[in-house]
Amino acid sequence: MSFDALPADHPLATGVTADAPLVAALEGRAATHRPVWFMRQAGRSLPEYLKVREGTTMLESCLKPDLAAEITLQPVRRYGVDAGIFFSDIVVPLKVAGVGVDIAPGVGPVFDHPIRTMADVDALPALGEPGDGGAMDEALEPVREAVRLTVAQLGSTPLIGFAGAPFTLAAYMVQGRPSRDHMAARELMWSAPEVWEALVSWTSRAAGLFLRAQVLAGASAVQLFDSWAGSLSEKAYVEKCAGGSRAALMAVADLGVPRIHFAANAGHLLDPMGAAGATALGVDYRTPLDEASRAVGGRFPLQGNIDPAMLAAPTATLEAHVLDVLRRGAEAPGHVVNLGHGMPPHADPDVVKRVVELVHERG
Ligand code: CP3
């Protein structure tokens, strides 16, 4: 893997994270142990998170570099996981671009103006090019600063940058708020294809700029969260969404970092998700990893897929499940252990820590 396009002081370019277990596994190389991290490892399951978040809204926290760095580091310190996931949110690039959006506690992203027409899309802020010194470039500075602060403290533990996939972002923007089946977005793609195409083109640029800012500031891998893609048929995904995901991931392809593509409930989409610019695939807890690996012809390192509900199980049941995930994951050309979706807010941190220790002992 060549990291020539990265800044000379980037931890992959200097070699500080180049052989970290996470990076090795994502590149399909031998690692000293099976790496493990958890989606939503930072957040409400940690008392130290609740403490530092007191009095600050979610989006304010994301844009305070010291606080975002501290929250990113909390689970790394507590659990000894093999990666930090940058503390931010999929709507942060939209917010800094000037879109009217907030995160309502217990609900999720809520927009002032749902996007339904071409006039709505045309009224979205202009995004510009990375490094052009334009409004978006400047607005992403708190993100870059938070990444720099985090990476300086993480040392040889890689930081994973992330973005929401263009479909998942568009699903929120069209509905204006979280929804169960994303019907408004799924209707728009067929009822007004030109509006849909223009919106996905905008969200894929926003996601691409967000990913690129994080990588240039020091992230050693990226993950695209296409959380709601599982609601799509393969036809809708391939014809209406995969191109946007590919564009977002390709925004960092020249930088040489591993690119993980994750969707929940998406066993039927693993093949097209791999074809959409990923170098590794995140698998939710419904598809066993050996089956997932066969479904993609063994071409991708895989990440996953402990069932988050198992964290509540008796120790013996949980341990047997983790060992089963390790055994099945060994069939892929590389395996990063993770949950098969985000950490439940009520997960017991001591149980999570034991999972990390078990993976490190046995993986
Ligand atoms: O630890 C990490 O994983 C890093 C940070 C992270 C957050 N959101 C922090 C957050 C990441 C990677 C995300 C991604 C994200 N945000 C996704 C994709 C991942 C997934 O879960 O499928 C989505 C769909 C969102 C949108 C969003 N933001 C939702 C649905 C919510 C939950 C709302 C709630 O209160 O239940 C948020 C808020 C959010 N993002 C929280 C955190 C820690 C909770 C805010 C709080 O602590 O009050």
Low-confidence stretches: none
Order of helices and strands: HHHHEHEEHHHEHHHEHEHEHEHEH
> Which percent bin holds the helix content?
40-55%
Bound molecule kinds, no repeats: coproporphyrinogen III
Strand content: 5-15%
Number of domains: 1
The termini sit apart by 25 Å
CATH topological fold name: TIM Barrel
Number of helices: 16
Provide mean pLDDT, rounded.
96
Largest sheet: 7 strands, parallel
The SS-based structural class is alpha/beta
Assign the CATH architecture: Alpha-Beta Barrel
Give the CATH level 1 class.
Alpha Beta
Global geometry: globular
Structural Rg:
19 Å
- Please state how the strands of the largest beta sheet are arranged side by side: 1-4-5-6-7-8-9
The beta-strand count equals 9
Please explain how this structure is put together:
It is a single chain. The protein has 363 residues and is α/β, with parallel strands linked by helices. The protein has one domain: Alpha-Beta Barrel (TIM Barrel), CATH 3.20.20.210. It has helices at residues 21-26, 47-53, 58-62, 65-79, 92-97, 118-122, 135-139, 141-154, 166-175, 183-191, 193-217, 234-250, 270-275, 289-295, 315-329, 349-362; strands spanning 84-85, 101-104, 108-111, 159-164, 221-225, 259-262, 280-282, 302-306, 335-339. The strands form two sheets. The chain has a seven-stranded parallel beta sheet with strand order 1-4-5-6-7-8-9. The chain has a two-stranded antiparallel ribbon with strand order 2-3. Strand 6, helix 13 (270-275) and strand 7 (280-282) form a beta-alpha-beta unit. The longest helix is centred in the middle third of the chain and has 25 residues, at 193-217. The two termini are 25 Å apart. Bound molecules: coproporphyrinogen III.
